[in-house]
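Support request from a user on the community tier.

User writes: "When I paste my structure tokens into the form, the page sometimes reloads and wipes my input. The last time it worked, I copied everything first. Here is what I submitted, just in case something in the input itself triggers the reload:"
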């Protein structure tokens, strides 16, 4: 089934996509490649002292490999086995990446896999310390940004956030163009236009 292209992303969404691209590009070379996704998985495992063959790490690795393969198949227009920021943004604008229709099926399993590692006390929610650890290791988010993300996502003020709050914020990040939403700061400050 062929998808109809979206309109070009707004300037605000374009800046959010730049930020998301930066959090994928762990080596900062301006391109996404398989190594960025492997490094993210390995960083998270190391942060929590988990072996590569731990079932939680294996599950996350499977999901990250699937994400990489999906990105490569829809965004790598020049077939060089890496994705530039412009390729990433074009694929999003064409409706080939995150869409409201596939959102939960893509993000919920990923967040549950992260939660299986980061939720060290097994209560189904993340503290600010948990947020700092997993976002630093998986996306190189600075501690101050991770703490602010946690504060903004903790909408009931109980000091904990769960998968539901994270899914809601990620949805806002991609699909809510109004500045000030909880999801706006999901990955730290949005680059200035």
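"...and here is what came back when it finally went through:"
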């Amino acid at each position: 089934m062929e998808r109809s292209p979206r309109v070009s992303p707004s300037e605000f969404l374009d800046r959010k996509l730049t930020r998301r691209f930066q959090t994928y590009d762990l080596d900062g070379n301006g391109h996404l490649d398989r190594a960025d996704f492997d490094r993210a998985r390995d960083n998270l495992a190391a942060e929590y002292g988990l072996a590569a063959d731990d079932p939680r790490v294996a599950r996350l690795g499977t999901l990250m490999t699937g994400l990489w393969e999906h990105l490569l198949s829809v965004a790598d227009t020049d077939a060089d086995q890496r994705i530039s920021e412009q390729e990433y943004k074009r694929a999003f604008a064409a409706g080939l990446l995150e869409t409201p229709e596939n959102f939960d099926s893509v993000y919920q399993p990923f967040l549950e896999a992260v939660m299986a590692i980061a939720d060290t006390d097994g209560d189904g929610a993340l503290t600010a310390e948990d947020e700092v650890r997993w976002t630093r290791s998986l996306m190189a988010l600075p501690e101050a940004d991770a703490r602010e993300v946690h504060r903004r996502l903790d909408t009931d003020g109980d000091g904990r956030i769960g998968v539901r709050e994270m899914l809601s914020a990620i949805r806002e990040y991609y699909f809510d163009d109004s500045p000030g939403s909880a999801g706006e700061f999901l990955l730290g400050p949005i680059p200035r236009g």
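Agent notes: The reload is a front-end session timeout and is unrelated to the input. The longest strand covers residues 31-32. DSSP finds eight helices and two strands in the chain. Escalated to web team.
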